[in-house]
Amino acid sequence: MNPAYIIVIITMIASWLIQRRLQSKFERYSQVGLQSNLSGKQIAELMLADHGITDVRVISTPGSLTDHYNPADKTVNLSEAVYADRSAAAAAVAAHECGHAVQHATAYAALQFRSAMVPALSAVSKFMPILLFLGVIMLNNTPLPLKIGVAMFALTTLFSFVTLPVEFDASKRALAWIDRRGIVTPQEHAMAKDALKWAALTYVVAALGSLATLLYYASFLMGRRRD
């Protein structure tokens, strides 16, 4: 069996396990009420204000673990539970997403590079699956479609790895701020840090999985050259 294929399977299993663990952690820490009694919305608005950011709105978005920062319309989108919750988990998520808003406001280089890649990725995603599929089928006749597909997939893999420092930095900013501002107690801080660690691991596994998949498709091209 192709070693890259084995790695893909391993990363898929690891991703599933980490997602389960992350969900478990957030459910557990959502039961721990903050002594400060601040909701996710209040924490997000306070962090934005402390960093002099006045043009970003904090809004509620449907779903679970759907929290994100949208630089296009400058909104911190908090899932319904995080938006209203007053827990260690909510504090971690709300501050983390505001960490991205702070990155945007301070022109954090990794975030700028990541944002600049989005238009190209949007265009690539429309054609990449078809090219990879056709490329494997047509490989004996011509390697060109697969070469183009692999090049496109390489861009998505790069995006996955560029995302890592962006996410790590947002968590670092979040934890430093909630500690400095007295939003959490030492015990609550440890819970917030643990929750963000597991969230970060999902990005790490996703990046490794993307790399493994890239190597899997690239192996077809390398095998053809050996032939």
List keywords for this structure.
transmembrane, single chain, mainly alpha, 6% strand, three-stranded mixed beta sheet, transmembrane helix, membrane, Zn_peptidase_2, 3 strands
Quick take:
This protein has 227 residues and is mainly alpha-helical. The protein has one domain (3-32, 89-224). The protein is 74% helix and 6% strand.
In words, what does this structure look like?
Keywords: Membrane, Transmembrane, Transmembrane helix. InterPro entries: Zn_peptidase_2 (IPR007395). Pfam families: Zn_peptidase_2. With 227 residues, this protein is mainly alpha-helical. The chain has one domain (3-32, 89-224). It has seven helices and three strands; from the N terminus they run H-H-E-E-E-H-H-H-H-H. A three-stranded mixed beta sheet has the order 1-3-2. The protein is elongated, with a radius of gyration of 20 Å. The two termini are 18 Å apart.
**Individual helix count:** 7
What number is the mean pLDDT? 92
Which of globular, elongated, flat, extended, rod-shaped describes the shape?
A: elongated
Taken as a percent bin, the fraction of beta residues is 5-15%
Elements, N to C (H/E)? HHEEEHHHHH
Low-confidence stretches: none
How much helix is in the residues?
A: over 70%
Keywords: Membrane, Transmembrane, Transmembrane helix
Transmembrane segments: 118-138, 144-164, 198-218
Pfam families: Zn_peptidase_2 (PF04298)
Protein name: Zinc metallopeptidase
